[in-house]
Amino acid sequence: MQINGDIIVGIDGSEASCEAAAWALKESRRSGQPLRLVSVAAAAHPKFADLTEARQAAETALAEVGRRLTELMAGQETPAVFTTELHDGDPAEVMAELSEDAGLLVIGHHGSDQPPTGRIGTVSSGLPGHALSPVLIHRATRGSEFDSVDVHPRGEAGVVIGLDTSDYSGVAALNAAGYAAATNATLHIVVGTAPLDGDEKARAQTELDMTWLRSHFPGLRVDAAYHDVDPVDLLIEQSREADLLVMGKRGIGRFASMLAQLGRTTSQVMPRAECSLLVVPFRDDPKLDDRRLAD
């Protein structure tokens, strides 16, 4: 995964945000990018009588996750390194503003004021469409991030991406391949086999893309599977076994269409994905220059 700036984690006192912070700490150590833990005190929060009470809760949440991260790295050559920040305002708006200079935003899939159900919380669902940086919605499905100082808990299904010919999808594929290579996971490309341009072209494009990704990530394990089903249903099904699902904010063809800030597929998969989800905006990456498109 290419992270070009600070890793910012939203902290709200929930276990989900603590797990997200532990995931982010490992990626900070891997990438060398600074880790910032951010908590936002909202005056309109239903659990607090006023802003002062909300700030106290936010400070407590930051202190607790800081303590747990420090304990996680106790005895290591390099201790846990991070900074903490307290902001006032609407959590989604503050995080979106911080994304302007961030390399990655990381949030838990639900907040402290919501039950730990399968659906993601309001901040998690609203932020990816407005953020200018990639957003990782973390979901602990294979165990706790606090079980290891350097390895993410994972199964056998690896990293999954739905691919098309858009630049959004190309940038997302680079992030997915980079993460898979760094974590020694397999990258699984899933492709709808009945796009507008025909099945044959979709398969040819996928072969070109696998060659392209291998050229930039030597040793990458990557395969492809073709399905004649709705892309939303396909990606949700794949997320049940995957460790990470990666999607571009928008796309074209079978994995596309516009709906507000997110594409149709991304906006419909996001609240129903059953693994961690990385939503990637477009960036001008020089690796896109040698991505070949099928005729």
TrEMBL record:
<feature type="domain" description="UspA">
    <location>
        <begin position="7"/>
        <end position="137"/>
    </location>
</feature>
<comment type="similarity">
    <text>Belongs to the universal stress protein A family.</text>
</comment>
<dbReference type="InterPro" id="IPR006015">
    <property type="entry name" value="Universal_stress_UspA"/>
</dbReference>
<feature type="domain" description="UspA">
    <location>
        <begin position="159"/>
        <end position="281"/>
    </location>
</feature>
<dbReference type="Pfam" id="PF00582">
    <property type="entry name" value="Usp"/>
</dbReference>
<protein>
    <recommendedName>
        <fullName>UspA domain-containing protein</fullName>
    </recommendedName>
</protein>
<dbReference type="InterPro" id="IPR014729">
    <property type="entry name" value="Rossmann-like_a/b/a_fold"/>
</dbReference>
<dbReference type="InterPro" id="IPR006016">
    <property type="entry name" value="UspA"/>
</dbReference>
